[in-house]
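Hey all, quick one. A colleague (J.T.) asked me to put the inosinic acid job into the tracker so the inputs and the structure tokens live in one place instead of scattered across chat threads. No bug as far as I know, just bookkeeping. Sequence used:
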Amino acid sequence: MESWVSVPKVELHAHLNGSIRDSTLLELARTLGEKGTIVFSEVEHVIRKNDRSLKEVFKLFDLIHILTTDHSTLTRITKEVVEDFASENVIYLELRTTPKKNDSIEMTKRSYMDAVIKGLRAITAVDVDFGCHDMESKGSTNLQPINDVNNLSPRKKIYVRLLLSIDRRESTASAMETVKLALEMQELGVVGIDLSGNPVIGEWVTFLPALVFAREQGFRITLHCGEVEICLTSNIMTETISSVDVHHFADLYKEKHPLVLCTDDSGVFSTSLSKEYSLAASSFGIGKEEMLRLAKSAVEFIFSGEEVKRELREIFDSTMKELRL
Ligand code: IMP
């Protein structure tokens, strides 16, 4: 596991509210329990449970949303989630989240996303480049490691880009509102649109106008529809496959089909990107050099431009050189 923590990695499929630390989720549940909003003893086992069916996962998301959908909590979880990815050497993260409205706390889709951006700005433990053009002290676009004056070890740096998700429960108008919000927030690191949510709910035709509009506006689109972003633990835990050795990863990898290892919901499925790399390497007998090549190949599928890709390729090349691969 350790060796996978230290190698650079690219995460392209992570849902914000699915990536919350267990400890934070329990703390939030306890606080809402004390306020009488929920009954803690009724939800504790749902949070602590280790494997759940797809149906149970979506029930858990409803609970998570009750716990997290207020501005200050969103700011906190965004900060923590990015810090967690950075701490395991994820150097580029595409973080997706569904902008939500909640009239009772005056939350609009825009204010939801502003709280997320506030979380990105609040990170001090690592340098964050979220492609924001009004950055003052944060996120220099220079990816050379920055040395602290008193500390010669280089500070960690992570690129973060945002994808706005449309939930399959939404209407055409609501989906369109999300795409318009993405347009408004392009200068704040929003690079694409995602369609996600419970796969047995909703119909394609509902979302088509918004997705077509997003494409016309130049957005990249990612759909939960047999995508080859591979999330091994998520697939095992939700029983999409019976065990890892029968996972389609093996066939796709053998055929050199483009694929990227991702976490999906690192909090909900108690995983990390390093664990996913470790699992793939041990389950499919892939050596370190090949795994690093696989990690590097993810750069070609990011939704950012050539400049960022070039910087990321350089990081992978220098790691390979250091490891004499
Ligand atoms: P959020 O968008 O930040 O609230 O992250 C949680 C949401 O992501 C869930 O409510 C779902 O809509 C979506 N999501 C998370 N995991 C999955 C998945 O495996 N399939 C489809 N949608 C998912």
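Adding what we noticed when we looked at it: The chain has 13 helices and eight strands. The radius of gyration is 19 Å.
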